[in-house]
Amino acid sequence: MTPRQAKPLIWILCLAPLAWLVYRAVFGGLSPNPIDDITDETGEWALRLLLVSLAVTPVRRLTGWNGVIQWRRLLGLFAFFYVCLHLATYVVLDQFFDPAAIFADVAKRRYITVGVAGFLTLLPLAITSTTGWIRRLGRRWQALHRLAYLAAVCGVVHLLWIVKGKDLSEPMAYGAVLAVLMAVRVVYWVR
Q1: How far is CA 173 from the centre of its chain?
Q2: Which residue from 151, 153, 152, 129 is spatially nearest to 141, judged by alpha carbons?
Q3: How far is CA 1 from CA 18, 74, 117, 143, 150, in A?
Q4: Residue 3 has pLDDT above 80, yes or no
Q5: Is pLDDT of 165 > 80?
Q6: Whole-Å CA distances, 3 to 22, 61, 73, 74, 180
Q7: Can you say whether the dihedral through the CA atoms of 146, 150, 155, 159 is positive or negative?
Q8: Which of 3, 38, 83, 150 is 20 to 30 A from 47 via CA?
Q9: In the chain, count of helices (H) and strands (E)?
Q10: pTM of the predicted model as reported, rounded to 2 decimal places
């Protein structure tokens, strides 16, 4: 199977968490607080897919498998898709489109502030992910898309501040994966 032929499989794998979440929402498989379930799962899948998309370049460099690079944009866009679902759940189901409450929450709660910063960091990356924007921006495109690292840091910190010292294992695991991915890049940059 070539990387291009595998793209439908990536679509299925990336949409499977959403399908499972919808199934559980429809058939009563969520907890007594379904809004929290939806918020948590869409946010976690956004971070997971962002880390997977950031793993593409190290995998290519370590293995020499250039075909994997064809999946990076798709994985990054699915990460942004789940970020949008996460944000929409907060705006629609949690805050009921109340701009005053949303702005007050962003200003008051630092985990929401850093989460919004992560979304705003990913927004220009999603907009400029088309082939036309890649051509227009040239070398600046790659520099701009390095902001994905900052977005991932925001995602890890967002999760770390949400758990507030309860069980840090999950945010620490995501942070460790991000640190390894960054370390591999640093090694290649300084060579």
Answers
A1: 15
A2: 129
A3: 25, 17, 38, 32, 33
A4: no
A5: no
A6: 29, 16, 13, 12, 25
A7: positive
A8: 3
A9: 9, 0
A10: 0.94
